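Fold sample X.
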Amino acid sequence: MQIQNCTTADVDKIFKLYEDARALQLSRKTVVWPYFEKQFIEKEIQNKQQWKILIDGEIACNWSISFIDQEIWEERERGDAIYIHRIATNRNFRGNNFVVKIVDWAKNFAVENNRKYVRLDTLGNNTRLIEHYTKSGFTFLGIVQLENTKSLPLHYQQEPNCCLFEIEI
C-alpha cells in the first residue's frame, strides 16, 4: 500500500470513484455528492490537494485536502488544521477501513505542516458515518447549520445540517 498525490492521469479514475460513491449514497438514502467539474478536480491535483491509496498499482481510495475551510468551520477556522474531503473508496476495496489509514497519514501530514488538528465533515444526520468516523479516531463535535454556502459545492447548499469531526494532534 502506498499513499501519494494524484496526477492528471488519475482524473478519469477519480470520476469513476465519485460515480460509485454517488451510487452508494443513493442506495443508502444519504446526501448525494454533486457532479464535480473536471477543471475543479484538475486544479486540486495541480495544488497537490488530491491524494490516493494505491494497492498493486490500482487506486483503492481517494480523498482531497485543504488547509482552509472557512465556510464550514467558521469561527473555528484559524489556519491550524488540515481538512479532509470526499473520501471515495474503490468498490473492489470496500471494507478495508481506509479511513483509519487516512487518519494515520493525516496526523503525520498535519505535524509536517505545523497544524494542530485533522478535521472533516459530513452532511445530514448520517449516524452510520458518525459512528465510523468516531471509531476511526475523530471526536464528533456535533451538528451545525451552515450559513455561508454559496461558494461550496451544491450538496452543501441543499443540506443545512453539517456534522463536524476533529482530531487534535
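Fold sample Y, listed below.
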Amino acid sequence: MQDVMGIVLGGGQGRRLYPLTKLRSKPAVPIAGKYRIIDIPISNCINSRINKIFVLTQYNSASLNKHIMQTYKFDIFAGGFVDILAAEQTPDNPHWFQGTADAVRQSIKHFAPFEDVKYILILSGDQLYHMDFADLMRFHLDSGADVTVSAIPVPAASASAFGIMNIAPDGRVVEFREKPKIHELAGLRCAAADCNAHPDGSHQYLASMGIYLFPKKLLIDLLSASSAVDFGKELFPESIGRYKVYANIFHGYWTDIGTIRSFYEANLGLTGDLPHFNFYDVRMPIYTHPRNLPGSRLNNCRLHQSIVAEGCILEGTDISGSVIGVRSRIGGGTTIKDSIVMGADQYESADDIAENAANKIPNLGIGDRCTIINAIIDKGVRIGDHVSIINAQNLQEKDEENYCIRDEIIVVPKGAIIPSGTVI
C-alpha cells in the first residue's frame, strides 16, 4: 500500500448540515463526543497502511485545517504525511474549486510529482464506515480493472438518494444513473449474488459509495481530457464507457452524513447495545486530537445507554440515549434524552463565571432543571436554567436567531445563548 496516495475531498458548503456548518466545513463537524468526521477517512487510510494523504479544502476550512495539523504528525522515519491542499488562485487558473473532480484536477500539480505513488484513492470527507483499503486494492488487481469503485447494496426506498450502478456477473459496471427516480429503478436491480446478501433480500440496488481507486496516470489523463467538475455526476459515468470499471461490493456499515437527520441518527446509533459502527475495534482504531483532559466527574447522575466523553462535569443529571461531548457542563435536575451535546473548547474560570453574572448571561454549558429532547446542541452554547428544548409545537422546519428545526430535530448552533426560562 506504500504506492497508494489518499485524497480526501473536504466537501462543499454543506448546506444540508446547516447550522452545524455555519462556522465549519462538513468534515470538521464533531461526532461521537470527541472526534471529527474527517477522522474517519484518515484513520481508515492509516489503518490500511496508506500514509500519504492530502485533504482538499475550500469552505469554512480554518477549524478543519487546525484539527488536521494538531492531530496527524508522522515520525520523520515513516515518510508519511497528512497535508492540506486548500483551494488557491494562480496565474494559470484564477478560479476556486468548482466541484469534486475540478478540485482533484487543480491539485494534479501537487500529487503528480510523487514518483513512488502509482495509485490514487479518492475518498469523501463526510462518511462513517470502517474499511481496509488493502482489500479494495486486491480486488482492483485481481479483476484487472482500470478503475474500481466501492459499492453498497441499498433498498429501493433509499436508491433515489445515490448514484445507482448495474454490474455484469464479473463485477464490471455496465450502467450508472445518478439519483434515479423510483420509476427508473426497474432496469437497475442488481442480479449479482453479492447484492442479495442482506437478510431480508431488500437491498437489491447497488449504490456508489464515492470511494474510487485509479492508477495515477489514468486519473491525470482522464481529468486532463475532461471538463467534468463533479466525480459522481460526470467523471465517473464518463469513465464507464471508456475504461474497465469494476464495483467492489462492501457489506459493512456505511452511512453518508449529509443531512441533519443522518448526522443525528449516526450519532445516536452509537449508543446502542450493539452499535453498527464500532469505535472500540482495536484492529481499526479511529484517531483524533489528543486533549489530555481529566476524566469526567459525575455527581448523583442517572445515565442510560449514553456516551459521555472526557472532561465533563455533570451534576445530578438524568441522561438517556444521548452523546455528551468533551468539557460538557450540565447542571442539577436537568434531563437530556435522545440528544447530542457537543460540549465546549475550553473551561470557564471563576473570573469568567463572575463576569457572566455581571453581564447577565448563562455560563458555558447547560444550566439547572432543563429539559432537552431530540436536539443537537453545538459547541460553546450557553443555556440558562429552567430551559425546555423539546419542539413544543411539533414543528418540522423553522429558523430562528438562536436555533433552528430540521426534520423535527432542534439544532442550537455554535456559541448560541439561550436565556433562562426559554421554551423551544
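Sample Y note: The chain has two domains: 4-271, 297-418.
Also: The first strand starts at residue 4 and ends at 9.
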